[in-house]
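Quick one, tokens below:
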């Protein structure tokens, strides 16, 4: 009888415990303990402990919330030691909610300041002045226990590639600058050197009257970052050696393992980076990876500032399997899977998105919310959700990462009110949907702010990388970046009431909103957006500036540009040879040309749209790949059915009506009336107004 009574009492206590933990858990990453019960007065130490407690409750019958008290959360191993080989929080499909009514939420308590930090704090007492310059300080990273993690490297790559894993220094919440020459100018813009003469595919000369450039190769980590062949493509190269050709010239040669994207061209602009001898200005730093010494020229008092060195790869990482046990680091395969789903947006211009994860499919994290968290100092991407359904990311601050702020692929999710800034590559990417069958993902990206991204890889890393079918990008503020604001490709996506400001200022042949190379990616609508200050502010050295607010590149078709406002843009709406485009009810103020239309398919791009018995161009191949004469494409886009029968290489059915403009320096449209007539276009009722 006693035994039965004991079992009964134990069962009652267990039920009471389960009832309690289903309501909420609390985490304090400064003072908590994973041996606690997770109540507000006895919080856990780590986010993963709360996650594991929720796992024990599966399948859930009610929603669960994890509340974070004011604290800094670092990556920790199973013994609760800080360990940068782990994310701060790892989520798997088993960590999903059940439905829109039974969800899991990770949130800061109201009024709490919660930081998820993937970087190592460099304390004030770790810095000592160098003997050669009292303005430059040094810290021994080995004595801080960081040498075992390594410091990564600058990684060369092709167009838009974001592969660097170099540790970065941040001070008082701002990214610092790898020691470089020329230094950043006082107005914040970048200065450059120009190639004088190209010797061969790996060697060029540059003017060097004071001999400083010839010394770069004495540094084994020296690199150069440049727009080597076009003013719209940048990359890094590692410098192998440098010799003085004469008293005023240096010869630089790059390693065969780090060729410049597209090769070297005379007059191309570049700068030297990651060079200790060039550490001569506030904000600059350098990591001596051999001797584990961090050198830094602080912009203000080193004793009162807060310094972090990025160490961890990811901060919040959702994976696609349940293979990770409690707090274990990702396997190589899992990291590779995540990386595949963080493609640079330029790749997605040519690859269809067919991604429709469903809750319960075994590879999807679903019905989960993360909100009110500040996330910083990851070497890679702060938040990664490679296969997700019904996720909410709300009111988070993500900054100072090496790659992207957040990368998301999935369905039925809401990403709102987030601030993403100072990322090394893109600020964000959000994809989802099935382009083969035109099935919408229904993701909503709204009321976010993205700024000062693309710090390291400058081109083809946008504020928002977009793609897929049926996603909405609305009321976002994207500003102050050297290249694109939005970049991608897909179908039936809506872009409404976004503001694009001060973009594409460092490059050419690009746009604030950019997509291209397709006859089949149709149905995208831009409505009510504002484009402001979309123009070059830095001198181009490899061609004339050509910057567009909206750039429909290389035959992109079936796009609607409606009721947008363009202010101080080099060009407003650019149609690069495409078909079935509508440009109506827009306002253009203080621009060069308001509208550009060209017929590139009739000349230099003729091969791409050609179809005959001996040759099928890539644009035509795309048509056949989606069976364009059959549903769903034939019913969603009736004009597509006649593409190969109705002037396939001509920019037909471009409608430019009911737009208004003022103070255009070049004119409303840069083609003649005869051109638009012979191209079967409709350009009418576009009128000036006083502004």
């Amino acid at each position: 009888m006693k035994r039965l009574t004991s079992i009964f009492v134990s069962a009652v206590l267990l039920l009471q415990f389960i009832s309690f933990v289903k309501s909420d858990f609390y985490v304090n990453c400064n003072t908590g303990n994973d041996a606690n019960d997770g109540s507000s007065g006895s919080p856990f130490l780590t986010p993963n402990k709360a996650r594991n407690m929720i796992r024990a409750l599966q399948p859930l019958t009610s929603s669960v919330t994890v509340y974070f008290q004011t604290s800094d959360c670092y990556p920790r191993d199973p013994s609760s030691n800080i360990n940068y080989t782990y994310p701060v929080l790892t989520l798997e499909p088993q960590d999903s909610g059940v439905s829109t009514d039974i969800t899991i939420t990770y949130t800061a308590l109201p009024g709490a300041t919660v930081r998820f930090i993937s970087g190592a704090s460099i304390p004030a007492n770790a810095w000592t002045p160098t003997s050669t310059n009292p303005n430059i300080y040094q810290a021994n990273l080995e004595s801080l226990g960081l040498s075992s993690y390594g410091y990564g490297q600058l990684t060369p790559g092709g167009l838009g590639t974001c592969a660097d894993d170099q540790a970065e220094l941040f001070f008082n919440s701002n990214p610092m600058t790898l020691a470089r020459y020329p230094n950043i100018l006082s107005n914040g813009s970048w200065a450059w050197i120009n190639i004088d003469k190209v010797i061969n595919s790996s060697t060029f000369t540059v003017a060097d009257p004071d001999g400083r450039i010839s010394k770069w190769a004495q540094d084994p980590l020296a690199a150069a970052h440049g727009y080597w062949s076009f003013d719209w493509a940048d990359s890094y190269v590692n410098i192998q050696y440098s010799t003085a050709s004469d008293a005023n010239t240096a010869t630089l040669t790059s390693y065969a393992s780090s060729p410049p994207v597209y090769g070297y061209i005379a007059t191309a602009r570049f700068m030297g980076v990651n060079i200790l001898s060039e550490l001569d200005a506030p904000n600059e730093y350098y990591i001596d990876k051999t001797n584990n010494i961090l050198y830094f020229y602080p912009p203000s008092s080193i004793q009162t500032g807060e310094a972090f060195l990025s160490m961890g790869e990811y901060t919040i990482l959702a994976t696609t399997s349940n293979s990770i046990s409690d707090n274990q680091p990702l396997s190589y395969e899992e990291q590779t899977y995540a990386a595949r789903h963080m493609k640079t947006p330029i790749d997605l211009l040519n690859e269809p998105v067919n991604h429709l994860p469903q809750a319960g499919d075994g590879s999807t994290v679903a019905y989960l919310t993360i909100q009110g968290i500040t996330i910083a100092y990851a070497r890679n991407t702060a938040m990664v959700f490679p296969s997700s359904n019904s996720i909410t990311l709300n009111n988070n601050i993500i900054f100072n990462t090496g790659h992207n702020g957040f990368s998301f692929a999935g369905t039925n999710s809401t990403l709102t009110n987030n601030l993403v800034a100072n990322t090394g590559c893109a600020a964000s990417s959000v994809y989802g949907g099935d382009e083969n069958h035109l099935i919408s993902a229904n993701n909503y990206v709204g009321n976010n702010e993205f700024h000062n991204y693309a710090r390291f890889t400058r081109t083809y890393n946008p504020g928002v990388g977009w793609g897929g079918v049926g996603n909405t990008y609305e009321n976002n503020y994207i500003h102050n970046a050297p290249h694109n604001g939005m970049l991608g490709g897909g179908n039936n996506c809506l872009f409404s009431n976004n503001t694009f400001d001060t973009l594409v200022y460092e490059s050419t042949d690009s746009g604030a909103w950019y997509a291209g190379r397709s006859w089949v990616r149709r149905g995208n609508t831009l409505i009510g957006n504002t484009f402001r200050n979309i123009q070059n502010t830095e001198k181009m050295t490899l061609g004339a500036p050509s910057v567009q607010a909206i750039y429909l590149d290389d035959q992109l078709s079936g796009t609607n540009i409606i009721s947008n406002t363009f202010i101080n843009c080099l060009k407003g709406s650019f149609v690069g040879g495409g078909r079935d485009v509508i440009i109506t009810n827009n306002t253009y103020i203080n621009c060069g040309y308001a509208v550009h239309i060209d017929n590139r398919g009739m000349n230099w791009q003729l091969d791409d749209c050609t179809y005959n018995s001996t040759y099928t161009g890539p644009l035509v191949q795309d048509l056949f790949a989606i069976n364009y004469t059959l549903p769903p494409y034939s019913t969603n886009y009736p004009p597509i059915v006649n593409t190969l029968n109705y002037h396939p290489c001509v920019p037909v059915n471009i409608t430019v009506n009911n737009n208004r403009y003022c103070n255009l320096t070049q004119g409303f449209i840069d083609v003649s009336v005869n051109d638009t007539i012979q191209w079967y276009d409709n350009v009418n009722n576009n009128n000036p107004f006083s502004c």
